[in-house]
From TrEMBL:
It is found in: Cell membrane. Residues 20-390 form the Major facilitator superfamily (MFS) profile domain. One of its GO terms (molecular function) is transmembrane transporter activity. This is MFS transporter. PANTHER family: MULTIDRUG RESISTANCE PROTEIN MDTH, RESISTANCE PROTEIN MDTM, PUTATIVE-RELATED-RELATED. It comes from the Bacteria. It comes from Acrocarpospora pleiomorpha. Belongs to the major facilitator superfamily. TCR/Tet family. Its main location: membrane. Pfam families: MFS_1 (PF07690). Gene3D superfamilies: MFS general substrate transporter like domains.
C-alpha cells in the first residue's frame, strides 16, 4: 500500500517528529481519554462511600500530599533508571492502584490508596517531558510540547463528558476504564519507545546541581506564581459562580476546552517560531487579565467571556514552559529538572485553594484583582529572565 505524503500545511503542523514521539502522543491521548476518576473523587467519596465532607476533605488532602512527592521522585527515577521504565512503571502502578481504590470500602484503605495514587498517577510527566527533550530538536520542542498539551486537553474533554455519564451507571466503571487506559499507555511505551537516557558515563550530579541553577529556580518561582493564578479556575471560580448553578460553571469551562481544541492547533506552529520566554510572559499576562476581568462578571455569559480571555493566554503558554525547561536542563538531568517544574504545580495546587478562598471571603474584587496583579508579576519576572534563558539556549547544540 502506498502512503501519500501529507499536505504541506498539515506537515508544517505535525511533521518532522520521530515515530517514538507519535507513540508517546497517542498513548497520552488514550490515557487522558480514560482519566475519568480524578474529577469525580469528591462526588465518589461522598455519594458512593458515604463519607462526610470533613472526611472527604481529609482524604483528598492525603492525595495532595502524595502528589507533592510524585514529580521530584519521578524525575529522579527517569534520570537514574530511565525514561521508559519510569513512565511504564508509573502507568502500571496507577492502573493497579485505581482498581484497588475501586474495590476499597474502608476509610483507611481508601486513604492509603489515595496517597499511593497521588504519588504514581502523574509520575509519567517528568519522564514524558524528558523523552520529548531527548527525541526532538530544540527548535521543534515548543511545537512538540504544544501538541502534547492539545492531546491532553482533547482527551480530558471527552473523558469529562463520558465520565459523568458512566458515573450514573456506577463509579466502578470509571476505575476500570482508567486502569485499562493506563495499562495501554504503559505497554505502548515499553514496546514501541526506545530508552533515551544518556549513557552512564554522562550521568553525573543530582538534585543538588539542579538547586544550584539559579536561573531554573527563578523560572520555577515565576511558574508557581502563574499556577496560583491559573488554578483559581478550578478552586475559586466555581465558588464565585455557585449562585448561578453548577451548569453555568460547566458551560463556562466548556468554552475553555473548545477554544483549546480548535484554536491551539492553528497557532502552535506560528508560536513555536517566536521567542519562548516572550510568548510565555504574554500568556501569563493575558491569563492574569482574564481573571482580573472577572471582577465585572455577574452572569453566566460574562463569566464565559472572561474564561475565553484567560484561555487565549493559556494557549500561548502551551509548550513554552516545557521547551524552556528542556533548554535549561543538561541532558542527564532532564528528568530532575522536569520533576522540579512539576513540583511547582503540586505546590500551587496545595496553596491556591487556601489563599484563594480566603481572598474570596474578603470579597470577589479582592480575589480577582489580586489574581490579575500576580499574573502581571509572573509576566514581568519571565521577561526579566528572558535574556539569560536565550543565552542558555545558544549553548544547546543537540537535542
Amino acid at each position: 500500500m502506498t502512503v501519500t505524503a501529507p499536505p504541506t500545511f498539515l506537515k508544517s503542523k505535525i511533521g518532522g517528529f520521530p515515530r517514538a514521539f507519535w507513540v508517546l502522543f497517542g498513548g497520552t491521548v488514550v490515557n487522558r481519554l480514560g482519566t475519568m476518576v480524578e474529577p469525580f473523587f469528591g462526588i465518589y467519596l461522598t455519594q458512593a462511600r458515604g463519607m462526610s465532607l470533613a472526611v472527604t476533605g481529609l482524604v483528598l488532602s492525603v492525595f495532595g500530599a502524595g502528589s507533592l512527592l510524585s514529580q521530584p521522585l519521578a524525575g529522579w527515577l527517569a534520570d537514574r533508571f530511565g525514561r521508559r521504565v519510569t513512565l511504564t512503571g508509573g502507568m502500571l502502578a496507577s492502573a493497579a492502584t485505581m482498581l484497588a481504590l475501586g474495590y476499597s470500602t474502608s476509610v483507611q484503605g481508601i486513604a492509603a490508596g489515595m496517597f499511593v495514587l497521588g504519588v504514581v498517577v502523574d509520575a509519567y510527566r517528568p519522564a514524558s517531558q524528558a523523552l520529548v527533550a531527548d527525541l526532538v530538536s530544540p527548535q521543534d520542542r515548543p511545537r512538540a510540547f504544544g501538541l502534547l498539551f492539545w492531546g491532553l486537553n482533547l482527551g480530558f474533554s471527552v473523558a469529562m463528558i463520558t465520565g459523568g455519564w458512566l458515573a450514573e451507571a456506577g463509579f466502578l466503571w470509571l476505575f476500570w476504564i482508567n486502569a485499562v487506559t493506563c495499562t495501554i499507555f504503559g505497554v505502548l511505551v515499553w514496546r514501541a519507545i526506545p530508552e533515551t537516557r544518556p549513557a552512564a558515563s554522562q550521568r553525573q550530579g543530582g538534585f543538588r546541581e539542579v538547586f544550584r541553577d539559579r536561573l531554573m529556580i527563578a523560572f520555577v518561582a515565576m511558574n508557581l506564581a502563574y499556577t496560583c493564578v491559573y488554578l483559581q479556575a478550578f478552586y475559586t471560580l466555581p465558588l464565585a459562580m455557585k449562585d448561578l448553578g453548577t451548569s453555568a460553571y460547566g458551560w463556562a469551562m466548556a468554552v475553555n476546552g473548545l477554544l483549546i481544541v480548535f484554536v491551539q492547533p492553528l497557532t502552535n506552529t506560528w508560536l513555536a517560531r517566536r521567542d519562548n520566554s516572550n510568548v510565555l510572559a504574554t500568556g501569563f499576562a493575558i491569563v492574569g487579565l482574564g481573571f482580573a476581568l472577572t471582577v465585572f462578571a455577574s452572569t453566566a455569559f460574562e463569566f464565559s467571556l472572561t474564561v475565553a480571555v484567560w484561555t487565549l493566554g493559556e494557549i500561548l503558554t502551551a509548550g513554552m514552559s516545557g521547551a524552556i525547561v528542556a533548554t535549561l536542563a543538561p541532558a542527564h538531568l532532564r528528568g530532575r529538572y522536569s520533576g522540579l517544574y512539576g513540583f511547582s504545580w503540586s505546590v500551587g495546587a496545595l496553596i491556591t485553594p487556601l489563599i484563594g478562598t480566603q481572598l474570596l471571603a474578603v470579597g470577589p474584587a479582592v480575589l480577582w484583582s489580586s489574581a490579575g496583579a500576580l499574573g502581571i508579576v509572573a509576566a514581568l519576572g519571565q521577561l526579566a529572565l528572558a535574556p539569560a534563558i536565550r543565552r542558555r539556549s545558544q549553548l544547546v547544540t543537540a537535542p
